[in-house]
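Hi Prof. W.,

I finally got the Molybdenum cofactor biosynthesis protein MoeB prediction working! I wasn't sure whether to trim anything, so I left the full sequence exactly as given:
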Amino acid sequence: KLITGIGEPMINRLLLFDALKMKFRELKLKKNPDCVVCSDHPTIKELIDYEAFCGMPAHDHSHNAELQSKPENITANSNPNEITVQELKARLDAGEKPFILDVRNPNEWEIVRLNGAVLIPLPELPNRLHELKGKEETEILVHCKMGGRSAQACEILRQHGFKHVKNVVGGINAWATQIDPSLPTY
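And this is what came out:
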């Protein structure tokens, strides 16, 4: 619209589309008087040189670009904060008894659980950290259904001084599909 001069441009307006309700809304935007770019007294008046800022060219025009590391060298345990269900199974088979924390809800725990796991649902974790007292230096393997809640739990534990926390990638569903297919999935 700006280039062709046809119609009215959406300057200072935002068009919202709700696909579920099939409705459009138009919001009028007010100028932020403190904006460093568009206020009456801007402090940023020109584009920065991104190549100088980043210390590298914006494009690699080489047609012979190769990966620095081959995909076959990349494994899930490349992330030191995660453990795969295969790695966990190997450790259990070797006789290790890691501390496994299950952060699912009690109704999920009733459906399926890992032997030896301790249940502390994610919403209760901040108020039940005292139950893990003395385990700050212990490796804690955290799992949930698929890995999302356990990742949140790992972050909470790290913020409270637990140094050796790992998220079980894929959670109990990965265990049931990849290690023990006799277990129910939900």
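The domain at 76-179 is CATH 3.40.250.10 (Oxidized Rhodanese; domain 1). Does that look reasonable to you?

Thanks,
D.
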